[in-house]
Amino acid sequence: xxxxxxxxxxxxxxxxxxxxxxxxxxxxxxxxxxxxxxxxxxxxxxxxxxxxxxxxxxxxxxxxxxxxxxxxxxxxxxxxxxxxxxxxx
Length: 89
Prior knowledge:
It is built from one helix and five strands, in the order E-E-E-E-E-H. It is an alpha+beta fold.
């Protein structure tokens, strides 16, 4: 479960071969005891939850880095190493 970014106490991860559980490209975000899977294409929550303010930060980050996230998703699905993505500043 490689961490691709970290900001404001939020870890953003992308799991290899995770397209069995969620068929659409997505990331996993963790903040304390909270965890959520979030779609890359529209920022919708697939499972779990984060505090509202943290979810808004993650969704803004997805919006900014959507193209990079989709490249990482394709690499991960092919079993290739993925790249780190700049944190939200």
